[in-house]
């Protein structure tokens, strides 16, 4: 048995770049930044903040949602899989790219339809609005609706 699962919470580094394949399927790509805070070791050594950049790839409905509602600077929670691919650049050298193929996404930045107004209930982009792929997952709470445990 093996597991390939990634969970990221970070900020969008660039507006999504969306393209449509000949079959009409949407594909969105954009970077997501995650940062570890700066800290000081017991001996006084200062360790600076470290930012990692992740290349996200979204397909179909998630890509279309990202095209409409995701913008540079937005905070996102994503779940997906790590995929690595290779290609030959113009010089013939082999290059490797590691990408996160997103299965689920939650937009955590508040968005409003009109500047200065609060987001309306049920609008994508509202704080905590989940957006999932067509491969919906059933959570344990959905299996037993009488279970009111807070965890």
TrEMBL record:
<protein>
    <recommendedName>
        <fullName>Single-stranded DNA-binding protein</fullName>
    </recommendedName>
</protein>
<dbReference type="InterPro" id="IPR011344">
    <property type="entry name" value="ssDNA-bd"/>
</dbReference>
<dbReference type="GO" id="GO:0009295">
    <property type="term" value="C:nucleoid"/>
</dbReference>
<keyword id="KW-0238">DNA-binding</keyword>
<comment type="subunit">
    <text>Homotetramer.</text>
</comment>
<dbReference type="InterPro" id="IPR012340">
    <property type="entry name" value="NA-bd_OB-fold"/>
</dbReference>
<dbReference type="GO" id="GO:0003697">
    <property type="term" value="F:single-stranded DNA binding"/>
</dbReference>
<dbReference type="Pfam" id="PF00436">
    <property type="entry name" value="SSB"/>
</dbReference>
<feature type="compositionally biased region" description="Polar residues">
    <location>
        <begin position="129"/>
        <end position="151"/>
    </location>
</feature>
<dbReference type="GO" id="GO:0006260">
    <property type="term" value="P:DNA replication"/>
</dbReference>
<feature type="region of interest" description="Disordered">
    <location>
        <begin position="114"/>
        <end position="151"/>
    </location>
</feature>
<dbReference type="InterPro" id="IPR000424">
    <property type="entry name" value="Primosome_PriB/ssb"/>
</dbReference>
């Amino acid at each position: 048995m093996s597991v390939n699962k990634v969970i990221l919470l970070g900020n969008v580094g660039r507006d999504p770049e969306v393209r449509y394949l000949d079959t009409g399927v949407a594909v969105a790509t954009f970077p997501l930044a995650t940062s570890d805070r700066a800290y000081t070791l017991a001996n006084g050594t200062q360790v600076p903040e470290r930012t990692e950049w992740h290349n996200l790839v979204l397909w179909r409905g998630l890509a279309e949602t990202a095209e409409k509602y995701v913008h540079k600077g937005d905070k996102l929670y994503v779940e997906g899989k790590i995929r690595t691919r290779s290609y030959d650049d113009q010089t013939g050298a082999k290059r490797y790219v590691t990408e996160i193929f997103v299965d689920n996404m939650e937009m955590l930045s508040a968005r409003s339809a009109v500047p200065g107004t609060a987001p309306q209930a049920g609008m994508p982009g509202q704080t905590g609005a989940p957006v999932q792929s067509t491969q919906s997952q059933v959570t344990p709470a959905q299996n037993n609706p009488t279970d009111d445990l807070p965890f």
